[in-house]
Amino acid sequence: MNKQMPDKPLDTAIAGAGIAGAALGVALKQTLGSGFSVAVFDPALAREPARDERVVAIAGGARRLFEALGVWERLAETQPIRAMEITDSKLSDAVRQTFLEFAEDEEGEPFAHMVENRALIVALREAAAEAGIELVASGIDSYAADESFARFSSGEKQYRARLIAAADGANSKLRSLAKIQTIARGYDQSGIVATIGHAREHDGKAVQHFLPSGSFAILPLTGKRSSIVWTESSAEAKRIVALPPAEFLAELELRFGLQLGELEVLSPARGYPLQISIARSFIAERLALVGDAAHVIHPLAGQGLNMGLRDVAALAECIADHARLGLDPGAPELLSRYQRWRRADTVAMGLATDGLNRLFSNESTPLKYLRDLGLGIVDRAPALKKFFAREAAGLTGDVPKLLRGEFI
Length: 408
Hints:
The chain has helices at residues 19-32, 60-68, 117-131, 173-177, 234-241, 245-256, 304-324, 332-360, 365-379, 382-393, and strands spanning 12-15, 38-41, 55-59, 79-81, 83-88, 98-103, 112-116, 134-136, 144-145, 150-154, 157-161, 164-166, 182-198, 205-211, 214-221, 225-233, 263-265, 270-279, 283-284, 287-289, 295-296.
């Protein structure tokens, strides 16, 4: 044995200390205790999380997961989304008709909460350290597996693990090392994100404007601030992001409207290319893909991170069920159960968001009539609205225990 290799293998090694990877580590360690070894590997652990304006939308099921793990209480500020309206119009339309509205349910359950990305990562790192997870400030550089262990290197050290969870992002190195292919397609669209200040209160209301070039979402933040997620063609997005501040603000006002009063851009606008990408397999020998390593979908439904946290909840439950019986956490039957649980749901959500983007991002008058008719039907059907709200919250189908707020 290589003298640098620890004598005892890890029960689970996690590549990636982002939200999904850290949440998986905390879930496993809190559930299985000191007798179950977990290590998280990521070069980003060598530095403080970036101080930036990025925010994430945490759906109801994901919030329950963080509550169960004791992470939610560590967050100083969260902004509930208490109402949502959906419009469908042309940019030149003087009035944007609202075709579909959602409000809090009877129990006052918000649709989601807006949370600062950095604050959530800091809270997860604190919980990981307190739980006794080994945090390694280097990535996983190699991967090989057999019937007994996965073997990998990180920095100058060699390791063994019974299971590796790859939560190392859309360009996952472990996915490539395992030779797992993806089904991927670019949209020739880019997303523009920025934080916007406004003169009036938003009252916790989110707005989704469907415009011919793509969706324009306004998501409420704490104070008189909102986050925008603005979809344009790649060429147009590049032009808009490069505009001088006054010209950028003029383009923003055309889409945002003045219902919240005078606007101010509080953070630099950033653009990023949009794509759909789903791994052909979520598993390999002693390896499971989690979060963006397994799937990337269009942001118009705000489900990307929440889908990753569904992966976390499902994989943690599979591992816990096995480990409590003294079984191998990297066993083929465990991995197969995880894949059955998550891949079909992921493909369905990917196809749904892809279809919605195609349906709404066009100038077709007949299609506009049909989609607006559909939105109106949903708006007048309380049971259907409730179903869509629960689906967005991650509370339909075979819901993992953590997403129900239960311990595993």
